[in-house]
């Protein structure tokens, strides 16, 4: 079995990429041929064409600052080059040269290539040749950047030896970023009058299309910002920018009518931006200004429920506003009642899957397609349901939303009226409703890519400053390792957009936290700039305490930026100690076993019966191999329970003294955290099969419904009872299933909707999962879905939830689960049986201050004798002793020998005294 990490997604899907540095087989943020099998993207040096090519359809030269052009040329005799420009386009390669230029900028080759400073700023260009812009021509740079560009390399005789297009991100930053990053963009109100501003330094002209008329905009030469100030009557009016600009993707000058990247409100389906002042009291619900939030916990204590806005209520018969933001204001609905139960037990945050404006759902209900089949009538293992859902998937009301269109406007399909500012009011009502239920709100933000680029109708950024906001590869094409058009937050104005957008959500919508999708594709510096900007927000000045806002994200390491190829990334290892957490896949993999791309999904892990309750699959290996892998998994879980600390020292299952960083995770260190708040623990999330579905594949088919429920709780407990923050997918405590769908991003309500009423089942047996991502698993899925015993009854569903809440209560009421430093963990937490002759495969025993926690994942009761505790009194924790799980109440402790006896498939917490 090869460990795997969550990574890129296909279309809006969430698949997984290999853990770096080992690029091994894997299993969640897109498969796109799993990013070309997750293989390394060619470096510019290896991807460069022969110098003799005159090809203006690609852009292999990079103008990195006002004085330097970098280019992959290898011709030692070519000392001179030039950048040709044509304001209206029309450069051609005819007669062995480039024709049609209206201006030229002379270049001279620099011996030795780029400077050390330039190589540090552009490490992926370190082997490029450097050409210095003739100082006499530098005053023509700004003008040249507004037209088509071509770099031409010339031999001693003046003949053209190579020609290519030119990437300009670096020189645009050098020329404009100092002033532009200080500019206020989008709609800004002063004394009731709006000013609209957009950064478009390469545009030849920008006008404002507002309320049916066209208004000229003024260009600021220093910043490249175009702006227009209007009367108060502009408020509420729809507008677009009309941008005349050279577009490399179509190789011509175009006139784009495009919405505002800094829009704060939109018409339906994002056709127009709206001039809106988010400070307008008419856009705020009653009590918004005085809103009192639940107490903020440190990030290390965050207990998070990951939740999709539509999933939450669309199938809830008790909800007044199914599928809407306002469903979170309905205090009597089943969903809100359940969230309040979780909040009472210790859940502190609801993490909302993307709720900004995204590009794949028609926002008006009348335009949303619906499956035209009798879905409930089909058999539980039928192909009919998925086929019917697939026919309308592209136009229905459902998508996870990982396809950003406008970053700083709420999604319209969740509002009662998408055409206007109701979405602003109702998003705020949602935040208010969650806060009043005792829960803070986290937004899932996706600044690493956009739904489209180039001249696509849904492309916003690239139709305003073509070739700037997206990360380009060596040939000038847009990188798509995240699934879609990758953005480039390393470029100053994309980085500014990230910071400005997050600050707006925090200040104007009182969002309490942000989860960064594919955060490893951001520079570490960009994420720390977000942290710094949030820290500057104060209740007196901004209405929020920015220092209490939590940040975490996916620190996966892959794609064209992997291994800090272009900048220091916001990856797991790099973010340790920064106060920004990253998801830890180590313990997740160990507890589940295998991954979604395993040819046989029955590969087992700690909580799915590996070695202790084998399911018969040959994919699990021999008995000896299973035992060895299980003991290694137990080491991964030990590291996970410490908060994934790199420096934590313990005896591993082989008896060696190691640190968390010494434990192997697919060729990488298992422990990478510097403090307990650095790593987010989880057993399942929206990516990949739900935990219940993974266990359905992996547990032996004969496993009883009661035992399946117990293993679900045990798996969740490995995250719940760890040091540091923990996340679980909403409904996991209710044994939530998506009918074995590993990638439900576009699978509609049928496969995704949460069912709060246990009489409606848990979602299992709703047909074979969609063929696009699951057909190869249908032979395994079909007999499971046909087995009615796998649909849990109310006793199992409600019992699992209540048992999970008991463990959550233990975690949040015992201070030893909230240790602040690595040193405190080292002194307080130990694994007394690790590596000892008595370490039992399938059982973990953790001592934590006055507590002893035993995770028994085996099908039999187990005795765990800790000789050093003999004579010390322990008893089952009071929460469990009076709690919902009758089985755990039979756990015992023998004081004379220090032996803890724990029932099968049970987590028992004992307290001294």
From TrEMBL:
Residues 59-174 form the Pullulanase N2 domain. Residues 760-910 form the Alpha-1,6-glucosidases pullulanase-type C-terminal domain. SUPFAM superfamilies: (Trans)glycosidases, E set domains, Glycosyl hydrolase domain. Keywords: Signal. Residues 185-263 form the Glycoside hydrolase family 13 N-terminal domain. InterPro entries: GH, Glyco_hydro_13_N, Glyco_hydro_b, Ig-like_fold, Ig_E-set, Pullul_strch, Pullul_strch_C, Pullulanase_N2. One of its GO terms (molecular function) is pullulanase activity. Residues 1-21 are annotated as: Disordered. Residues 1-47 form the signal peptide. GO terms for biological process: carbohydrate metabolic process. Belongs to the glycosyl hydrolase 13 family. NCBIfam families: pullul_strch. This is Pullulanase-type alpha-1,6-glucosidase.
